[in-house]
Amino acid sequence: FIDGVDPTLRTRLTEHCRLEPLDFEIETIHNEALVERGFGYPNKHWGLEPFDNTRPDWKRRYATIFLQQPPE
Questions:
Q1: What is the DSSP annotation of 48-59?
Q2: Quick one: average pLDDT of 27-34?
C-alpha cells in the first residue's frame, strides 16, 4: 500500500520499482482519503488532488494498492 505520497512522486517511484497498480476501486479509495486529508488542495501541500481519470497515468497516479512484478 502506498498512501500519503505526492502523486507525481508516486508515479515516478512505482514505475522505477516496477510496481503495477491494482485496478480495484481506485477512485473510491482515492476519494475516501478526503476524510483524512481534507479539502486543502491546491493551497495546502497536504490537500488531496481531485481525481482525474482523463490523465494517461491516472491508475498509477491515484492507486493505493500496487503489486510487485516478478524479475525479468
A1: PPPP-TTSTTHH
A2: 86
pLDDT (mean) for 30-42: 71
CA distance 1 to 47: 19
What residue ranges do the domains of the chain occupy?
7-68
- Distance, in Å, from the CA atom of 18 to the CA atom of 60, rounded to the nearest integer, reads 11
The set of cell numbers assigned to 67 is 503489486
Cell numbers found for residue 6:
505526492
**C-alpha torsion sign, points 46, 15, 29, 53:** positive
Question: What Rg value do the Cα atoms of the chain yield, rounded?
Answer: 12
The one-letter amino acid code at 48 reads L
